[in-house]
Amino acid sequence: MSIGRVRPAITGLPAYHPGKAAEQAEAEHGISGAVKLASNENPYEPIPQVVEAMQEAAKGVNRYADHRATGLREAIGDWIGVDERQVSVGCGSVGLLQQLFLTYVDAGDEVVSPWRSFEAYPIFAQLMGATFVEVPLVDHRFDLEAAAAAVIPATKLVLLATPNNPTGTAVSTAEIHEFVSGLPSDVIVVVDEAYREFLDPGFGDPVRDLVPQFANLVVTRTLSKAYGLAGVRTGYLVAHPDVVTEVDKTLVPFAVNAIAQAGALAAVRNASAYKPAIDRLLAERNRVVSALTDAGWKLPDSQANFVYLDLGERTLEVCVELERRGVVTRPFAGEGLRVTIGTPEENAKFLGAMAEMGGDA
After folding, report:
1. Helix 344-357 vs helix 315-324: angle between axes, to the nearest 10 degrees?
2. Is 269 helix (H, G, I), strand (E, B) or coil?
3. Helix (H, G, I), strand (E, B) or coil at 210
4. pTM, whole model, 2 decimals?
């Protein structure tokens, strides 16, 4: 039953489903000591400078924060080597993605993306009354030639998550350059880099390699993953200043709160202090991949802080069996299972559960 006149675009809108909490799995299966490897979070706490900055900011939350997060924009610009006018800040990169939809997409428009990819994309398209055009992956990788062929006059946005969520595969800036060069200049191409810090540098840097050449290319990034700020939601966008001006119009007033701004600013100013934790996660990713490969699994080349198991119709069955053994993962029914890289102990629990379950890879 609906109360009021709900928009048709909302009536059938699927809700976003976050990764299941460890506590929920414990209650469902009557177990204890479960670990959550479902949401691609950084398992390590923020550095002390970040915690201290957020604690200090908490003393002033009776006042509104700077709506534009001006100081943070300036610091990000200095950090990545762009003009502050090219930077926008939002409520996580997903908040900025929603702003891009609000800025560019009308009912009847089309949005193109390789698929499977980040599940918020089709939700945002439906929210705007637009058509989401899925371009199937090939061997878990983007088919950019097919994506280019899917672009028509009604296309407003093309979304490229690289590394891709949930498969972990990535495309190089050279490949994206060729792709964007063949598109109309009024189509906005979004390079969604939520997992940027886990990517092999050999893939290139779209901020350095592409943004200066294409006014219609936008890069989104987040401080939620590598910098351990998932709980305070801060992301940033890099684009031509004119794009930033338009996207800023759709920012909910004071969406990036004072504590989030303080933590993000401290993280940016002390970014090098995160390198040891990121290196540990990369080493653990390599260990998990090696163990699974030795067990017979064929995995996509993950460039993120997770691995993907192509399980097809067995996905939910394996997911439940892992939960019964205290490991919570993220299933995509009928497709595969995404498993976050956690601490060495958490990863050992996952690998042990996989070995205990046995079965064909």
Report:
1. 120
2. helix
3. coil
4. 0.96
Residues 118 and 161: their CA atoms lie apart, in Å, by 7
CA 82 to chain centre: 22
Domains along the chain with CATH numbers: 18-40+274-357 (3.90.1150.10), 48-269 (3.40.640.10)
Q: Could you read off the pLDDT of 175-231 as tens digits, one per residue?
A: 999 999 999 999 999 999 999 999 999 999 999 999 999 999 999 999 999 999 999
Burial of 341-354, coded b for 16+ CB within 10 Å and e otherwise, reads: bbeeebbbbbbebb
Place of tokens 């060495």: 344
Angle at 98 between CA 94 and CA 102, to 5 degrees: 165
Peptide bond into 153 cis (omega under 30): no
Structural contact between residues 131 and 105, judged by C-beta atoms closer than 8 angstroms: no
Element (H, E) at 307: strand 306-310
3-state secondary structure of 128: coil
The three-state secondary structure class of 339 is strand
Amino acid letter, residue 156: K
Closest-CA residue to 47 (of 256, 269, 287): 269
Distance, CA of 11 to CA of 272 (rounded, Å): 46
**In this predicted model, what pLDDT tens digit does every residue of 67-100 receive, in sequence order?**
999 999 999 999 999 999 999 999 999 999 999 9
- Crossing angle of helices 92-104 and 120-127, in 10° steps, is 30
Q: How confident is the model at residue 15 (pLDDT cuts 50, 70, 90)?
A: confident
Backbone angles phi, psi at 237, to 5 degrees: -130, 140
Q: Encoding tokens for residue 272?
A: 């090098």
